[in-house]
Amino acid sequence: MRRMTQNPPDLRPDLARARLAADPARPGQPRIGMVSLGCPKALVDSERILTRLRAEGYAISPDYQGADAVIVNTCGFLDSARAESLDAIGEALRENGKVIVTGCLGAEPEMITGTHPRVLAVTGPHQYEAVLDAVHAAAPPAPNPFVDLLPATGVSLTPRHYSYLKISEGCDHACKFCIIPDMRGRLVSRPAKAILREAEKLVEAGVKELLVISQDTSAYGTDWKGRDEKFPILSLARDLGSLGAWVRLHYVYPYPHVRDLVPLMAEGRILPYLDIPFQHAHPDTLKRMARPAAAARTLDEIAAWRRTCPDIVLRSTFIVGYPGETEAEFQTLLDWLDEAQLDRVGAFRYENVKGARSNDLPDHVPEEVKEDRYARFMEKAQAISEAKLAARVGTRIEVIVDEVDAEGATCRTRADAPEIDGNLFIDEGFEDLRPGDRVTVEVDEAADYDLWGRRV
């Protein structure tokens, strides 16, 4: 049987790999398949949809042939992601025939139905009720309250020992290259009590790492009128850090108040890890992006963060080949990267996206120049990573185990987020380890992005 497709984890640096386990169905129970594309925020949406379906008595199918209908949760961030989403819809139609489309690309239903007129329904992001209505029409529910039991934490598409925790929807920024605010709307933060209840349930169920995600994590709560706290992310991070799990912050916009998060890292309350999308370093490029054009002050902030928390690990993504980017501007980016010495770095080659204001900018960079700059940028980033990891040889660090097979244990350090960063491998004395275990190792070998170690 052909299994559901999933985004390759190396396609974009912000992807999470969806895992659909077999879900035995009782006689007469309808089964639904899910193809989850895009970023971890979309993955959380997929989990919510599947949780609702499980609560209504549906089973989950990991393959096309066993499904009564298939939901494709799409991504529409880049033109390449849109093409991938359309391909996934086509594959689901060929392999199953009953397809419901949701997610970011669903905000443009004419594009989907124009390419695939046989889809049963198209809904946009967050439209959970509309998705459920479409599933009900395609495969009516047949619940049995005495048999259909829902896990306390809902349906998870990640391993049991880590989970994404979405704290808000939407974004208030107006970056010229991005259409996320058009697709997902303005910032809407979840109540802190609801987030903490969800986090507590996850930790009680065995989750050892909470990956905090949103479109703009550091802006959490700033959409609340009459709030008591100017920056609610600070108290939320403090409260999450009291639960006993690793807490990792993703998509942190570099506002000045981020400096107040760093002491929580130094105290060990949350992981010393910041995922900040700097995007570029030249002030003119940043202005054309409609981003803050203060790269020099950003270097000062990075230095201050490191003084407060010497162990802090910084991850970022950048865009190369943005319209109007000159060789001098690109060289400024390389020089800035030399100074910043970021630990984890990814890059996008600029792409036009339908509806983005950057499409109309003059002086688009030729594709061959983008490729050359991407290669040069990643060569620089790789050299920095290699040197930083080499410096860790001989040190003792705590790691979390992700997978164990006959060859060894695949682990991550506090400096590594799942799917997007490196790994630490243990190839001796690993037989008793299980996913989710946290153990101390001594690093004895380093490569460009990965480490090897032995238990101590």
UniProtKB/TrEMBL annotation:
Q: Which cofactor does it need?
A: [4Fe-4S] cluster
One GO cellular component term, please give it.
cytosol
GO terms for molecular function, please? 4 iron, 4 sulfur cluster binding; aspartic acid methylthiotransferase activity; metal ion binding; protein methylthiotransferase activity
Question: Radical SAM core domain location, by residue?
Answer: 157-387
Q: How is the cofactor bound?
A: Binds 2 [4Fe-4S] clusters. One cluster is coordinated with 3 cysteines and an exchangeable S-adenosyl-L-methionine.
- What does it do? Catalyzes the methylthiolation of an aspartic acid residue of ribosomal protein uS12.
Return the protein name: Ribosomal protein uS12 methylthiotransferase RimO
Question: What gene is behind this protein?
Answer: rimO
Which residue range or ranges hold the MTTase N-terminal domain? 30-140
Give the species. Answer: Fuscovulum blasticum DSM 2131
Tell me which residues make up the TRAM domain.
Answer: 390-456
PROSITE patterns registered for this protein in UniProt: MTTASE_N, RADICAL_SAM, TRAM
Q: Which InterPro entries match?
A: Elp3/MiaA/NifB-like_rSAM (IPR006638), Methylthiotransferase (IPR005839), Methylthiotransferase_N (IPR013848), Methylthiotransferase_N_sf (IPR038135), NA-bd_OB-fold (IPR012340), Ribosomal_uS12_MeSTrfase_RimO (IPR005840), rSAM (IPR007197), rSAM_horseshoe (IPR023404)
EC category name: transferase
GO BP of this protein: tRNA modification
